[in-house]
Q: What sequence folds into this?
């Protein structure tokens, strides 16, 4: 395969999150230096964007087969058991990410129903939380794509 598998949407999200974090942090430093006060919203927005950056970056790494794992056993196994191990790895990851999607969605719905406001800006808390199941769902999609490529022999453990 000539080009690496890609997760363009997640790359764009991660890049935007990082750029916005850098800009609001720089702006906060400048304002603090000039006025001895700081923007109140920067911490809340930065924490939210760090979560987006983390999940989006993890999805990109997942799609590109860049997550750290020990491939010694996988490389030592013959084709049949290796395929079973890849399916087991997918099943384990899909279970965890499925739980994050499920419980993240439940939490977002509850926050919407309770009309909880964020502590810093007073915006609805679900605006931040709804991204958790969405991005975990994207990770699940990328995990499935990666596992499928590995099962079909299009992505080996040696590629990074």
A:
């Amino acid at each position: 395969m000539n080009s690496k598998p890609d997760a363009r949407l997640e790359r764009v999200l991660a890049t935007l999150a990082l750029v916005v974090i850098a800009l609001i942090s720089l702006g906060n430093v400048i304002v603090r230096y000039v006025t001895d006060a700081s923007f109140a919203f920067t911490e809340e927005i930065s924490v939210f964007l760090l979560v987006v950056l983390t999940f989006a970056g993890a999805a990109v790494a997942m799609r590109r087969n860049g997550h750290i794992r020990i491939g010694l056993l996988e490389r030592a196994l013959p084709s049949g058991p290796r395929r079973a191990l890849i399916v087991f790895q997918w099943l384990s990851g899909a279970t965890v990410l499925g739980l994050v999607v499920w419980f993240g969605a439940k939490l977002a719905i509850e926050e919407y129903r309770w009309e909880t406001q964020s502590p810093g800006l007073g915006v609805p808390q679900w605006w931040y939380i709804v991204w958790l199941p969405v991005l975990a769902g994207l990770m699940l999609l990328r995990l499935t794509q990666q596992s499928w490529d590995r099962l079909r022999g299009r992505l080996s453990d040696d590629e990074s």
The CA atoms of residues 9 and 20 lie 17 Å apart.
